[in-house]
Design a protein that fits this description.
By secondary structure, the protein is of the alpha/beta class. Helices cover 42% and strands 14% of the residues.
Length: 251
């Protein structure tokens, strides 16, 4: 039985002070949650402060991105060493906003995934189609290309440590949500691709999150689907009560 994982992606929101207050509120709600893996991913400026707040809880600290390089002349980048020094455990890679605005390709996402696994960080690898892809009937082709490209040459044993997040781009921050049936269909499709790539055992072990406007109201139905193992939460993660409501739906 795969343990549910709910990760909050705070994106470019919250000053350090605001992040500390949100982390404190989430700590009160979820600090001792054992049944679901809870992850918070604040902006880099607040990583240490949030980590200090949750340090003695069961809540995991995550980052929103990571360089594929160890160190060097890479202005503006953050390395695995910097993250691990702050006790970061998870890192979001290949988010649709990184792919769209910063032109990250599957090749670069794959390099980052390999580096994260090499350095014992747990990547949350994002894939998903745009509205025009879905309307053109190309959802499966787009998602398959991203899964195969982003996870190329990743050994089967690593799939217990990585997470795949399916995020239909048309449902991120728009208020639109894939139906539970639509989401389940793509999650099952992704699991089938993983089975073809590295075998049924790894496919059964890997956790696949839904990342398209999950809220407390729709979380129970989404999380009840057999291949949906959690959520990558954006807007609803910026409110402690909403985030806790989603986590509790996964219990």
């Amino acid at each position: 039985m795969r343990k549910k994982i709910i990760a909050g992606n705070w994106k470019m929101n919250k000053t350090v002070g605001e992040a500390v207050e949100l982390a404190k509120a989430i700590k009160l709600e979820l600090g001792d949650c054992k049944e679901v893996d809870v992850v918070v991913c604040p902006p880099f400026t607040a990583t240490k402060a949030v980590g200090d707040v949750i340090s003695e809880t069961l809540i995991n600290l995550g980052a929103q991105n990571m360089s594929s390089e160890d160190d060097g002349a890479y202005t503006g980048e953050i390395s695995h060493t910097m993250l691990k020094e702050l006790f970061v455990r998870y890192v979001i890679l290949g988010h649709s906003e990184r792919r769209e605005y910063y032109k990250e390709t599957d090749f670069w996402v794959n390099k980052k995934v390999k580096k994260a696994l090499e350095k014992n960080l747990r990547p949350i690898v994002c894939v998903g189609e745009k509205l025009e892809d879905r309307e053109a009937g190309n959802t499966e082709a787009v998602v398959e290309a991203q899964v195969r490209g982003s996870l190329a040459d990743i050994p089967a044993a690593a799939y217990t440590d990585l997470v795949i997040a399916y995020e239909p781009v048309w449902a991120i921050g728009t208020g639109k949500t894939a139906t539970a049936e639509q989401a389940q269909e793509v999650h099952a499709f992704i699991r089938g691709i993983v089975a073809d790539m590295v075998g049924a055992e790894a496919a059964d072990a890997v956790r696949i999150q839904y990342g398209g406007s999950m809220k407390p109201g729709n979380a129970p139905e989404l999380l009840a689907q057999p291949d949906i193992d959690g959520g990558l939460i954006g807007g609803a993660a910026l409110d402690a009560a909403s985030f806790a409501g989603i986590v509790k739906a996964g219990l």
